[in-house]
Amino acid sequence: MARAVTTQHKVIATAAAWIVALLIFFPILYTIITSFKSEQEAIQGFDLIPSWTLESYADVQSQYNYWKPFMNSVIISVGSTVLALLVAVPAAWSMAFSPTKRTKDILMWMLSTKMMPAVAVLMPIYLLFRDLGLLDSRFGLTVMLMLINLPIVVWMLYTYFREIPGEILEAARMDGASLWGEIWHVLTPMAVPGIASTMLLNIILAWNEAFWTIRLTTTEAAPLTAFITSFSSPQGLFWAKLSAASTLAIAPILIMGWFSQKQLVRGLTFGAVK
Amino acid sequence: MGKITLRNVNKSFGPVTIIPNIDLDIEDGEFVVFVGPSGCGKSTLLRLIAGLEDTTGGVISIDGRDVTGEAPAKRKLAMVFQSYALYPHMTVGKNIAFPLKMAGESAEVIDRKVKDAARVLNLTNYLDRRPGQLSGGQRQRVAIGRAIVRQPSAFLFDEPLSNLDASLRGTMRLEISELHHQLKTTMIYVTHDQVEAMTMADKIVVLNAGNIEQVGSPMELYKTPKNLFVAGFIGSPKMNFVEGAVADKFGARTIGVRPEHIKISTTAGDWKGKVGVAEHLGSDTFLHVHTDQGTINVRGDGEVGVNHGDTVYLTPMPTKVHKFGADGNTM
Lengths: 274, 331
Description:
- The structure holds two protein chains of two kinds.
- By secondary structure, chain A is an all-alpha fold.
- Chain A has two domains: 7-59, no CATH class; 66-230, MetI-like fold.
- Helices cover 73% and strands 1% of the residues of chain A.
- Chain A has a two-stranded antiparallel ribbon.
- The model of chain A has no long low-confidence stretch (mean pLDDT 86).
- By secondary structure, chain B is of the alpha+beta class.
- Chain B has two domains: 4-231, P-loop containing nucleotide triphosphate hydrolases (Rossmann fold, 3-Layer(aba) Sandwich); 239-324, CATH 2.40.50.140.
- Chain B is 27% helix and 33% strand.
- Chain B contains nine helices and 18 strands.
- In chain B, the strands form four sheets. In chain B, strands 6-7-8-3-9-10 form a six-stranded mixed β-sheet, with helices on both faces.
- In chain B, a hairpin with a 2-residue loop joins strand 1 (4-13) and strand 2.
- The longest helix of chain B has 18 residues, at 166-183.
- Chain B is globular, with a radius of gyration of 23 Å.
- Chain A binds chain B through residues 165, 167-168, 170-178, 181, 185-186, 189-190, and chain B through 50, 52, 71-73, 77-79, 81-83, 85-89, 98-99, 102-103, 146, 150.
């Protein structure tokens, strides 16, 4: 039976949702506010009204090269996403449409690798990267991020593909479609929303990844995560500059996330509510 | 042409045998219905013919050509699925055109054939709509349109009317039968509904646990069922089975009497019983009568003036009694 929703309930629920949303968003908001303060204001303590100076942004741009780590972030996150999709799409197709007795076990094993603390494999990975000459290389980092996000990508695509009725694919086969025709004309158009949301999520995860990007890079391949940490110097913390750098680092992904939020939510909840 | 032959066709999934060895001949232009209870293997058999499942053994031939190892697309068969299986991202026109596009037909030919199919199926006004904007019956018509446009050697229907309501099912049943008369192409139709089988088929194949129990015309199956299973499955309401002394009198282990072959009297007859439920439909009256021989279903012509709790006497028509031996086969 449907529960009656009164206006009072709606007001309370809306207020609660706003409070939770503001609490979650507050650290980001305060970072943005701080980025518009002078260094002196920033260390004075909690204050929500900045002097709206662009001094920190100018310093970040003039003293540090923002565009190099920005481009590294773009290359690494987009590159790792493309690589992950190239591997995950066929893997998820085969798991969804011709599963074997062990398919579920493989999926669980893939997911279990995400539960392992990254620091546990830091040493072997570091040594492997060093010996292969991949330290501080964009290629090495792209492969690394592809590998760590692959389980999530496969799982998301697998869940999405499972929602495509097998009979539609069989109908295409009966209609004379070759395997390629089946994939191109029927499967892909039906899976585009799923592939797109998986891609968006993977770009966000790769963009925000800090553990490996900081430890496996120094200067050449350092993305924006490493760029932010460079503001923590032996001379002390420069809060305003750090905030300006952080704002610049998160802005692209925040804007992308904002515009694609509908697609993302649909992708993440697909199959859960139907 | 669409003569389909199955020789020693069998299918197993691991250690589980779904279809033991089956031999079957389907003549060109025939309307054949595979009927049987859920899980009897009728859909699997259809999928084996379609090529959507690989056979474990045996040979499937279409017009004398061995197609056992061929891909579905090469068998020149068209299939209509229970769930319609329309392409949701394509319009009705593009759905119908899809097989022609895959066959590499020219744009003019595709356009002409799609329009022809749409006209036959009353879909002309819906060609620009998507499947999601159509009713169940219209979707089923699109699925049929997609099948006829290819001019296949045979049509395969996998319970195509199961998702429709009763009234639409009746209409679509007629439409498919008319389509068969019009096209004169072989049709294989899978259903668990024996009424569909009886009303549409030239030939019915009754399946049970993967085995063919009997093959014949609807009337052959109705009048001379080979065994207890076929006798019980064909006919609605179901045939009554009686064992014991009554069957002994006929020299049989079990006797079977159809509900319409029992005379009802309120004064005298062979079996005395009390009416449990009386269903008055106007054209017929269905009675469920509790007798010493068990519950007997009876069908009376028109209005029969008895109700719940009344005592009635039932007499089976002697010439219509089916006799079965200990092995369950007709004697």
